[in-house]
Write a structure and sequence with these properties.
Length: 140
């Protein structure tokens, strides 16, 4: 699984945003490396184990000829309190890392395989993620 080698702070503040302002990605929105990509259409917090699960599905379907790029990295720690702990006892301990994904962000890119194989691999990977996504190609 992916996680940072070293972090400056163990716990981050909870991110807040204006619910009235539409939030869309401004970085990582174009296909830069491969011929096909998986683009998010909804927002979500994607955990490192979900990224790894989707990566394994794509790698298995691509075979030895295909090349895969993961365009997101989980660098935000998330915390959880133990079971049956009452409120008011502080923030929970860090249990893993996640990345905030906004609509329009390209998550994965593939190259070196036919269009049918690439679309099949990316749609299978999208089912492993907690967001809606669509397959986009560099051609269109």
């Amino acid at each position: 699984m992916m996680f940072p080698k070293k972090v400056k702070f163990r716990k981050w503040h909870t991110m807040r945003r204006n619910p009235k302002s539409p939030k869309v990605a401004t970085r990582g929105i174009t296909i830069a490396f491969g011929s096909h990509g998986l683009r998010a259409t909804t927002e979500a917090r994607v955990r490192s184990n979900q990224i790894e699960s989707a990566r394994k599905v794509i790698a298995r379907n691509l075979g030895k000829t295909g090349k895969l790029w993961v365009r997101i990295f989980p660098d935000k720690p998330f915390t959880q309190k133990p079971a049956e702990v009452k409120l008011g006892k502080g923030k929970g301990d860090p249990v893993g890392y996640e990345v905030q994904v906004w609509p329009g962000r390209v998550l994965f890119e593939v190259d070196g395989v036919t269009d049918a194989i690439a679309v099949d691999a990316l749609t299978r990977a999208a089912k492993k993620l907690p967001l809606k996504a669509k397959v986009v190609s560099r051609h269109a």
